[in-house]
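so my prof wants the structure for this chain in the C-alpha cells format not the other one, which i didnt know existed until like an hour ago. anyway here's the sequence
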Amino acid sequence: MEAEQRRLLIIAGVIAAGVVAACVVVTLVVVMLRAGGDELGTDAHHVHAEPTETAEGAARAAMRQIFTWRPAEQAGPWDALHAAADTLTGPLAEAAAERPASEPLPRQWAAWAASGDVVVGAVELASDPVDPHAPRAEVRLILRQVVQHTDGDTTPLPEMAAQVVVVREGHTWKAAQYRLEMTR
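here's what i got, hopefully its the right format
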C-alpha cells in the first residue's frame, strides 16, 4: 500500500507542477500581448501633452513644420507654411491662407528639388517657461535646418534665433508671428 501511495503522490506532484507551469506560460503570454503596444525603447505608455497645450510646444511645433521643406514636392517654403495653418493665427495664418504673387526661394531650392533632398527643421527652446495663463507670450527658439541628401549625407544650414509670438485660443496656443536672426 505504501508503494501505491508514493506512486499517487508522485503523479499528483507531477500534475501540480504541470498545472503551475501552464499557468506561468499563460500569464506570460497574456502580459506580453497586453504590452504589445509598447515597443521596447519607447515611451508609448507615457501621457504626452499635445504640442499646442503649452506656449513653448505651440511655438516649437509651428516652427518645425514651417521650416521643414520638401523641394521636390513643394513649389516653395510657402507650401510648408500653408501645411502648418492649423498651428497658426493672426498674421501667420493670413500669410498661410494665400500664396504670395512672388515667393522668394532659397538659392539652393532648385538643386535640392532636382536631387530629391529634404530640408528638416529642428528647434530648441532658448527661453524660460512662460505663464500658462497669459493670453500672449514670446518664446525664443534656436532654429536649425539640416539638408538630408538622398545618399544619406547631411548638410547643416546656418543656425538662426527665432522669437515667436504665440497667442492663447481657448485651451490651445497658436503661433501668430516670428522674427529670425542669424546666430553665426
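also thought this was worth mentioning. Residues 43-49 have pLDDT under 50 and may be disordered.
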